[in-house]
TrEMBL record:
A Pfam cross-reference name: Oxidored_molyb
Transmembrane segments: 38-65, 102-123, 144-163, 175-193
Domain Oxidoreductase molybdopterin-binding: 289-422
Family matches, as CDD domains: SO_family_Moco
Gene3D superfamilies: Oxidoreductase, molybdopterin-binding domain (3.90.420.10)
Residue numbers spanned by region Disordered: 1-25
Protein name: Oxidoreductase molybdopterin-binding domain-containing protein
Keywords (A to Z) from UniProt: Membrane, Transmembrane, Transmembrane helix
One Gene Ontology MF term: oxidoreductase activity
Composition bias, Low complexity: 7-25
Upper taxonomic lineage: Bacteria, Bacillati, Actinomycetota, Actinomycetes, Kitasatosporales
């Protein structure tokens, strides 16, 4: 007499084990033979280094916007104790912000395949039942939710902002800032808990079985090292199509960068432009020689200077780039104009130039008003520029006058300057 076939699921099994094998809550649903502690640990170590660099450069970028000493620049109100690290952003080296933001944005885009691969490698745990076996397990699942949700939110908002196609409700600055703290707190806690296990997994020659290893694996089509090469190739491709946005001669390779194409024109003013005069609402009638005056206010009163009068003051030159929060930058351009500290001296600050509030003629776009710190005003390379590369500024580059400051974010290098107020902000 033949034995009767045994059922796949015993009537005595727990309710959890009776779940259909076609459900993602069943361990047998996940059949990839690649998943396992070794692959997950390798990806985790890469993210540990990369995300730490992302977080630090992101905080530096936030500090460079001068939110602590110039509230007019602060796009993240109510930061409270989260602003504990803020410091006076230096002006040396002059390429500091260009390097910081280039690393932040390029690395963030480069890590996208690694992040997706890491999420794929641990996805069975997101569907595991029961949801919480204990209070400690519930807290671990909650931290995992914050980690995954926070990571996706930060990368998605960052990519949309870089592409100049920001579609999320609310301002990018506070959403990205607060999201970064939530994500990194969960990430740091997760790293502290998992690093001993990850180190052990990387040392072992044989794969240790755990809940990530499929009990019903399919036939392998690629090795784990092959999968890592695939992920690394994706990251290399994103790097190659992003990094060129900051280098002359390579901008055509930056296919994923909105400012990554060729130079936007020839001649002395033929370099990248973020905000054009037409978009900002600048009218030619108000920037003409007869109409435009720079209003400078300070300790001893107010002076009004035409462009011709500014050109008669002692002029100085500086080779400085423009670097933007979206990660793109220009090479060094040769600027010529009046030192900011000399303008401060005109209104009573001969020896101790203070902070300055700079106001633009622009009608549209953020940072119509921007504050600069005293150390930025005092730097001899900080200019109210009238010329670039030997010619007058073009309207799109800020004619009749614009600010240029070493190591400052591009939005603080105000164009179409109308008023400068020296003193405490």
């Amino acid at each position: 007499m033949r034995d009767e076939p045994r059922p796949l699921i015993s009537s005595r099994t727990s309710p959890t084990s009776r779940i259909s094998l076609t459900s993602p809550t069943s361990p047998r649903f996940w059949r990839s033979p690649l998943r396992g502690p070794w692959l997950t640990s390798v990806l985790g170590v890469v993210l540990l280094v990369g995300i730490t660099v992302l977080f630090v450069t992101g905080l530096f970028s936030y500090a460079a916007y001068n939110p602590d000493l110039a509230p007019v620049n602060d796009k993240t109100p109510g930061k409270g104790i989260l602003g504990f690290y803020l410091f006076a952003w230096p002006t040396r080296p002059h390429w500091l912000y260009r390097l910081n933001q280039g690393v932040h944005v390029t690395l963030g885009i480069t890590l996208i395949p690694v992040l997706l691969a890491k999420l794929w490698s641990v996805v069975p745990r997101l569907f595991a039942l029961p949801p919480a076996r204990s209070l400690a397990h519930a807290l671990e699942r909650l931290s995992l939710l914050l980690l995954v949700g926070g990571g996706l939110f930060e990368f998605v908002t960052g990519v949309f902002n870089v592409q100049l196609n920001y579609v999320f409700p609310g301002s990018f600055y506070p959403l990205h800032f607060y999201g970064a703290w939530v994500f990194f707190a969960a990430f740091a806690a997760h790293a502290l808990l998992k690093m001993p296990t990850a180190a052990r997994n990387l040392r072992q020659l044989r794969e240790e079985r755990n809940d990530l290893v499929s009990p019903n694996p399919a036939e392998p089509t690629v090795s784990r090292r092959g999968a890592l090469l695939f992920v690394g190739g994706g990251s290399l491709l994103l790097f190659a199509t992003t990094a060129g946005r900051s280098f002359d001669g390579l901008r055509r390779t930056a296919l994923l960068a909105p400012h990554g194409g060729a130079e936007p024109g020839g001649g002395p003013n033929g370099f990248q432009i973020n905000k054009r005069a037409a978009y900002a609402g600048i009218r030619a009638a108000e920037t003409g020689e007869d109409a435009w005056r720079l209003v400078v206010t300070g300790r001893t009163g107010t002076v009004r200077l035409s462009r011709a009068r500014l050109a008669e003051l002692p002029l100085h030159s500086a080779a400085l780039p423009i670097a933007c929060v979206e990660g793109w930058s220009t090479s060094d351009q040769w600027w010529r104009g009046v030192r900011l500290r000399d303008l401060a001296a005109l209104v009573g600050y001969e020896d101790d130039p203070p902070d300055v509030l700079v106001e633009s003629l622009q009608r549209h776009g953020a940072f119509r008003r921007a504050g600069l710190r005293a150390n930025q005003v005092a730097d001899p390379r900080s200019l109210l520029a009238l010329y670039v590369n030997g010619e007058d500024l073009s309207p799109d580059h800020g004619y009749p006058a614009r600010v240029i400051v070493p190591a400052a974010p591009g939005v603080l290098n105000t164009k179409w300057v109308a008023r400068m107020t020296f003193g405490d902000l």
